[in-house]
C-alpha cells in the first residue's frame, strides 16, 4: 500500500493525479501546510525538506518499504512501478524526462514565485512582480510553441511530463495569465482536465 502525504497544491496534485491514472491503491495523510504541519517531527522523519508531497510504499523494490520525497522522483517511481506513463522506447523516454525536468526546474519554481509576488506578498513590489510575470509569460510561450502541433508535451502519448505540468497551469489566473492568449496550451489543458482520473486526483485531499 502507498501512503501519500499531501496537501492541495500543484505539487501535491501531481502525485494524486498519477496515482489515480495508474490505478494504484493508496491512502491519504493530509499535511495542512497552512498550519505548519510539514514541520511536525513525524513528517520530517519522512521528508527532511519539510515539503509535500511524499510517499511511503510498503511494497517497494525487492518487497521492502521505500520512502520518497520530491514530486518528480515520485512520478518516475510510480511510472516505473506500474510500467505506464513513461515510455520504454529510449528516445521517447528521454523526451519525457526532459520535459519533466523542464517542469521541475522552470515551470514549478518560477510560477511559484509568480504566485507569491502577484497574489500573496504583503507588499506589491514592482520589480519582482514584473520579473516573475514576464518569466511566466515566457514559459507559457515555450509550452505554446511545443504544443502547437502535438497533443502531448513529450513522446507520442500522455505521460508524467503532462501530469507534472498540468496542475501549475491550473493556477494560471494566479500568474496573471489568460489561457485565451495561448490556444495550444488551452486545448492541451482542457483535454487533461476532462480525464476522470485527473478530476479525482484534483480532489485529494478532500
Automatic annotation (TrEMBL):
This is GST-like protein. Residues 1-86 form the GST N-terminal domain. PANTHER family: GLUTATHIONE S-TRANSFERASE GSTA, GLUTATHIONE S-TRANSFERASE-RELATED. The lineage of its organism: Bacteria, Pseudomonadati, Pseudomonadota, Betaproteobacteria, Rhodocyclales. Residues 89-206 form the GST C-terminal domain. It comes from Azoarcus indigens. Gene3D superfamilies: 1.20.1050.10, Glutaredoxin.
